[in-house]
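thought: user wants a sequence for this fold. calling inverse folding tool.
action: design(structure=
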């Protein structure tokens, strides 16, 4: 499926704020492997091929166990996730699907039991960040790169320190 628009060329400054949020997330209180699980789960729910490709690669690089990557779509049934992972994934699903049930007291209680207030804010910002990027990538049909580099790769955001920063 071809890209609809090169958003970086059309509006080079449009995603600067999102890039800053992504940098904050990467330097925040949530460990990188858990950030990547959250990014992957939201991207699975939203069906964002670009973000799935990017964050599966990043998750592997961050040391997320293959058992977690393999069973993430069925994390509730998998023994590979800790109570803290489960709370983060519950929170991810609640915030990603906020239009359905809003955020229940049970979801709040689950995250509050495992994370400090600062961590809850940082986790929430990570979820907001990836949901924003998912919507951009899906709307503009940004193709996944599957790790491609060079002239044959489609123009996509540079997967450096931020979630989806503009190309260099």
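)
observation: tool returned 168 residues.
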């Amino acid at each position: 499926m071809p890209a609809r628009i090169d958003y970086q060329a059309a509006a080079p400054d449009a995603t600067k704020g999102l890039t800053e949020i992504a940098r904050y997330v990467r330097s925040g209180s949530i460990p990188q492997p858990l950030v990547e699980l959250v990014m992957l789960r939201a991207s699975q729910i939203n069906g964002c091929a670009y973000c799935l490709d990017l964050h599966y690669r990043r998750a592997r690089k961050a040391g997320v166990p293959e058992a977690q990557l393999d069973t993430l779509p069925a994390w509730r049934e998998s023994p590979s996730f800790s109570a803290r992972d489960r709370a983060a994934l519950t929170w991810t699903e609640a915030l990603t699907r906020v239009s359905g049930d809003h955020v229940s007291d049970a979801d709040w209680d689950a995250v509050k039991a495992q994370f400090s207030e600062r961590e809850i804010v940082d986790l929430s910002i990570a979820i907001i960040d990836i949901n924003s990027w998912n919507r951009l990538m899906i709307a503009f049909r940004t193709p996944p790169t599957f790790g491609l580099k060079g002239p044959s790769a489609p123009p996509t955001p540079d997967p450096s320190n931020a979630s989806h920063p503009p190309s260099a």
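thought: summarizing for user.
answer: Here is the designed sequence. Residues 33-139 form a domain with the AhpD-like fold (CATH 1.20.1290.10).
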